[in-house]
Fold this sequence. Notes:
By secondary structure, the protein is an all-alpha fold. It has two helices and no strands. It has helices spanning 2-26, 33-74. Helix 1 (2-26) packs antiparallel against helix 2.
Amino acid sequence: MKKFLKILISTAATLFLAFIMFYCMVTGAPDSKSAAEIYMIKAAIFAVLLSAFLCACIHYILYLQKKLEEKEKEA
């Protein structure tokens, strides 16, 4: 249950961060329709990738911290 909750919170945080970044980037979209569509697609991809990268970094740091604590208990 704890792992499921952790995954759920991480997913929600990633999507929320992606939505906020996308919204901020779209407010500066160009006026022409075709350029705006391309801009919005690129903004969405960038927002999701950056959010996922930040979430993965946080999980990796927590994983390394857990491994370090296990090694300290062994010593």
